[in-house]
Design brief:
Blueprint lengths: L1 H7 L7 H19 L4 H19 L3 H31 L3 E5 L6 E5 L4 E5 L6 E5 L1
Antiparallel strand pairs: 1-2, 3-4
Helix pairs in contact: 2-3
């Protein structure tokens, strides 16, 4: 294994974009088994595999880092929106969520308290809402 460690010195390796490409590669692999002989899927399968290995073995670390940052610029908002949606669904039993009318901040208040005064921690606007 030491030979592999020496080989990878100075190379980029794996990052979030490579992991996303790997997930796409696995999806294309499964899809190619389900769909009977589709040339387009097979070509995409090979291209994605090539990209994964090209990025991992690249010695141009700054370029691969910039590619990963561009990917994360679009990926992180999607991931955060998904995580927040899951959190809201889990918390819906105990809390109500309101959006501040002034700054659009999401406010969480406990359910079952009747009419309550909600003060936004960001802009200090007070609203009367039913919880």
């Amino acid at each position: 294994m030491a030979w592999f460690r020496r080989f990878m010195i100075g190379r980029y390796g794996m990052d979030q974009l490579s992991i996303a490409l790997f997930v796409i590669w696995v999806f294309l692999s499964i899809l190619s088994k389900i769909v009977s002989y589709n040339q387009i899927i097979n070509v995409l399968y090979v291209i994605v595999a090539f990209l994964i290995f090209y990025r991992m073995l690249s010695k141009n670390i700054s370029k691969r880092y910039q590619e990963n940052m561009r990917f994360l610029k679009y990926w992180n908002p999607l991931k955060n929106k998904y995580k927040n949606t899951i959190k809201h669904v889990k918390d819906a039993r105990y809390y109500r969520f309101y959006k501040c009318t002034n700054c659009k901040q999401i406010l969480r208040v406990p359910k079952g308290k009747g009419k309550i005064s909600i003060t936004c921690p960001k802009c200090k606007i007070t609203m009367i809402k039913k919880s």
